[in-house]
Each structure stands twice: as structure tokens, then as C-alpha cells.
Amino acid sequence: MREKGKIVEKRGEVVVVEIEKENRKECSSCGLCKMGKKPYIEIESEKNFNVGDSVIVEVSEDIILKSSLLIYGLPLAGFVAGVLLAGLFRNHTMKVIIFFLIFGGTWYIGLNLANKLHRRYKPQIKLFSSENGQK
Length: 135
What we know:
By secondary structure, this protein is an alpha+beta fold. It is 44% helix and 24% strand.
């Protein structure tokens, strides 16, 4: 997925890019822009960018899907498994403990795996032009 954006902040090797809102189905489906928030993304880059530079940001769609499954799908599976396994016990306290151990464990694992995935496959700036026309 490639998106146009503009650099709005620079902190060392990290630049903050404001993604330009375009009128597309994919953009409107997430609901971020509908909430009045502008989408931003932080990108690590060794290149020398300046605030105001226009850029093209590339993010792998596979990584977005995999991260979403790890962050939302794995805890959902843990929730269902926790409910089913907790139902095997008669003691109410044991049911609660089993449920939270399974649900909390899958949530923790999913979040850590998504973070590792994000660190390995970071968004990249593919093309840029500065305010003075340089590329």
C-alpha cells in the first residue's frame, strides 16, 4: 500500500508523516478520518528530510493483515478458548482464573508477536520531494 503524505515533525532519525486523505473506499473503511483525526505514521529513516517535504510511504499490506490478526484474532480465539475451558470447572474462582490466564496469555502473545513483526517490517519512504523542488 502506497500513500502520499507530508512530513510534519522530525525527531532525530524519526519523521512523523501526515497521510493525505484521499476519497477511496479503503480509506473510509477504517473510520479514522471520520472521527476528525488526521492519520499520522512515524517512520525511522537515515535520510535527511525536512518538515514540509512531500513523501510516498509504503507499507506492506500483508504486514497490516498479519498484525491485525495477531492483535485482534489471537485474543478473540483466547477469549473463546478461555470461556470453553473455564466451563469445565465447577468452582467459580477457578473458572475466573482459567479464563483470565488463557485470555490474558493470548492477548500478551499476540501483542508481542505483532510488535516483533512491526520492528522487522517497518514502513518506508520510497519517494520524496522537498518544498524547494529537490528530489
